[in-house]
């Protein structure tokens, strides 16, 4: 079932890409595994997925700390933190995650940098941007991103790879389009300034209910949970 879901998702991505003359190869699929069992994760891995996202550090540590308990020879998989990172979890997060997508303040970036320095790691991150007015959403304001990116680009143990945003929950995916467009705009602005360089290439936006619109608006990374595990 999971395998069929992934095939269907890839077909839908390919269709959206075709509209825009984009190559599906530009789009990375992150399987969001929060609340999913080891068996489900393993099934997704067996179809060749390499990127997995969790939104709680503790749950991720339990499930992925022993990567060998999931499957052998998994050094190629990448783990993404997509949920809020609290300062008391920074140490564990830096140890475990390949890409921390939820850096939403300068203070948090500083804490991650400090921790990464301690273990001699160059930590890949995305800056989370609050593109929606909903009070519950975290992230930098769009107008804060450039200054934050400039500052963080001076941190030795952090590599800023791009931006992430969560669109609000809407009835119709079309209603998410302006938020994706806004994030792409900020992304282009940062790129235009050239403060970070070509490593700044990831635009993480689009979930189960809105990923096709996200692809149309330039997403290079989709975070999908239900589309993969529930179909
Ligand atoms: C849960 C979650 C997702 C995946 O959501 P689906 O709607 O199941 O695809 C993506 N991004 C974040 C930040 C999440 O918390």
Kindly describe this structure.
The chain is an alpha/beta fold and 231 residues long. Helix content is 41%, strand content 16%. Strands 7-6-5-4-3-2-1-8 form an eight-stranded parallel β-sheet. β6, α8 and β7 form a beta-alpha-beta unit. The termini are close together. Bound molecules: pyridoxal-5'-phosphate. The site of pyridoxal-5'-phosphate has 14 residues, from β8 and α10.
Number of helices: 10
What is the makeup of the main sheet? Answer: 8 strands, parallel
> How is the largest sheet built, in terms of strand order?
7-6-5-4-3-2-1-8
Taken as a percent bin, the fraction of beta residues is 15-25%
Q: What is the typical, i.e. mean, pLDDT? A: 93
Structural class: alpha/beta
Identify the bound ligands.
pyridoxal-5'-phosphate
Number of strands: 8
User: Rounded to an integer, what's the Rg over CA atoms?
Assistant: 17 Å
List the uncertain runs.
none
Write down the overall geometry.
Answer: globular
What's this entry about, in short?
The protein is an alpha/beta fold. Helices cover 41% and strands 16% of the residues. Strand 6 (158-164), helix 8 (177-193) and strand 7 (202-204) form a beta-alpha-beta unit.
């Amino acid at each position: 079932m999971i395998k069929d879901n992934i095939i269907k998702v890839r077909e839908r991505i390919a269709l959206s890409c075709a509209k825009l003359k984009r190559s599906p190869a530009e789009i990375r699929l992150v399987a969001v595994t929060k609340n999913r069992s080891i068996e489900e994760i393993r099934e997704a891995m067996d179809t060749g997925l390499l990127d997995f996202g969790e939104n709680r550090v503790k749950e991720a540590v339990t499930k992925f700390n022993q990567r060998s308990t999931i499957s052998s020879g998994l050094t190629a998989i990448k783990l993404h933190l997509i949920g809020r990172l609290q300062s008391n979890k920074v140490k564990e997060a830096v140890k475990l995650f390949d890409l921390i997508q939820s850096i939403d303040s300068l203070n948090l970036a500083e804490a991650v940098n400090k921790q990464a320095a301690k273990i001699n790691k160059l930590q890949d991150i995305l800056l989370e941007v609050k593109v929606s007015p909903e009070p519950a959403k975290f992230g930098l304001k769009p107008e804060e991103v450039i200054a934050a990116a400039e500052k963080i680009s001076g941190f030795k143990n952090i590599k800023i790879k791009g931006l992430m945003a969560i669109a609000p929950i809407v009835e119709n995916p079309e209603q998410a389009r302006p938020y994706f467009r806004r994030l792409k705009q900020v992304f282009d602005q940062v790129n235009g300034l050239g403060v970070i360089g070509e490593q700044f290439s990831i635009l993480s936006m689009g979930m189960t209910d809105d990923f096709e619109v996200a692809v149309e608006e330039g997403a290079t990374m989709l975070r999908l949970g239900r589309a993969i595990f529930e179909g």
